[in-house]
Amino acid sequence: MKHIAGGIAVIALGTFGIAGILASSGSVRSWLDSKCHYTGTSRDQNGHRARRYDCPGSASTIAHRLRDAHHPADQRSTPAGHFLRFRNQMVGLTAGAVAGRSIARLASERDGYGFFNNYVGGWWGSYGGPAERFRGGGPGGGK
Amino acid sequence: MRVAALAAVAAAALWAPAAALATPVLDPADAAELAQSLADATEEQGVCYGWEIEVDDASGGPSGPEYGSNLGPQQRFDLSQCPKYAVLVGTIVFTSDSSDSEDASRIEVRSNLPGITQESLDELGYGANDSLVGDDNDTVLANMVGALPEIVADHGYAPPVPFETPAAPVEQQGAATGRPRLSDFLRQWGPALLICSLLLVGGAVWLVVGVEQRRRRRHAERRERRGPARPAQAPDGG
């Protein structure tokens, strides 16, 4: 009798586990749809498109939450924001127009590589432009 | 002749551009790209950024300081001239093959802006310690340093660095490569799914064993109730 009860308990545990996994494994898009506000489609000058969201929280905060919900295969952090790579999609998280908010852009792999090329070019694919070299910047002592 | 050749090499090294010098972690192009992104951030935010990592490789790999800043690769800025700054400092120790000790690294964010610490990097998944000992430590280092301006803006010390879409025509952009092999679902849930599947299989085996044992026990009990089996009687001959 112990064996039968134990077996049923273990089967129930496995079943609940799989059900829990299936229940909590939505898509990146559905996560953004639920946590952020969809504001339309962004297009760059080369015609690459991305779904654009207004999100509550800074780019770092949203990157942290999205990472917890959906583990990216790769991540790139730059001064302009964070970029997460999934199997068929890329997400760019950058500062919003208002402090404490951020903009999320969700794009297919092809569109994302073009749209975020300034930041992921050469890191997540081939690089077709001239070799990077240091050109300098503004005043080092700050403004 | 040999002395002249050595002198020529030394002179060439002396006059070589800073970006071409070998560094222990970042290759020159990546260091230049990182420094350029920091220079752009400094121009936008008025905050100085940099990195300084001391590498000690007992296994024979490149050792020495790995550093750069918004002034360029292998350039340090003068802290006294920066009203605001954030610098990633750290150490990496690679042990020799014969050593029992593990490779190790430590990092710290030094800043005169309260709240700008390595914990923000932890939350982004880069980890504080031993995150720079892997084969991809150049990528991790570039990501950690590259994240500093966004973290500073996040804390409200400076305006954010604006996101810009590329101006280059599409044929100069290259194409995405290295698509992850596993689906997002399997990459995230694969181990948990395996454990749950093993539980299902294990539970089923346990259940079958239990049912089989119960069946045998009942069979034995039934035989006991009937008593010992009587020997078969010989048929009457008539």
Task: Provide structural commentary.
The complex is a heterodimer of chains A (143) and B (238). With 143 residues, chain A is an alpha+beta fold. Chain A has helices spanning 2-24, 28-35, 59-69, 109-115, 117-120; strands at residues 37-43, 49-56, 74-78, 81-85, 89-95, 101-108. In chain A, a hairpin with a 5-residue loop joins β5 and β6. Chain A starts with a helix and ends in a 23-residue tail after the last helix. Chain B has 238 residues and is an alpha+beta fold. Chain B is 41% helix and 15% strand. Chain B is built from five helices and five strands, in the order ααβββββααα. In chain B, strands 3-2-1-4-5 form a five-stranded mixed β-sheet, covered by helices on one side. In chain B, a hairpin with a 2-residue loop joins β2 (64-69) and β3. Chain B is elongated, with a radius of gyration of 33 Å. Chain B starts with a helix and ends in a 12-residue tail after the last helix. The interface between A and B is large, with 83 and 93 residues.
> Percent of residues of chain A in helical segments?
25-40%
Order of helices and strands of chain B: HHEEEEEHHH
Quickly give the structural class of chain B: alpha+beta
Strand content of chain A: 25-35%
Question: Nutshell version of this structure?
Answer:
The complex is a heterodimer of chains A (143) and B (238). Chain A has 143 residues and is of the alpha+beta class.
List keywords for this structure.
heterodimer, A: 143 residues, alpha+beta, six-stranded antiparallel beta sheet, 5 helices, 37% helix, disordered C terminus, B: 238 residues, five-stranded mixed beta sheet, 5 strands
Secondary structure layout:
The complex is a heterodimer of chains A (about 140) and B (about 240).
Chain A: H1 2-24, H2 28-35, E1 37-43, E2 49-56, H3 59-69, E3 74-78, E4 81-85, E5 89-95, E6 101-108, H4 109-115, H5 117-120
Chain B: H1 2-15, H2 28-45, E1 48-57, E2 64-69, E3 72-73, E4 85-94, E5 104-111, H3 119-123, H4 137-154, H5 184-226
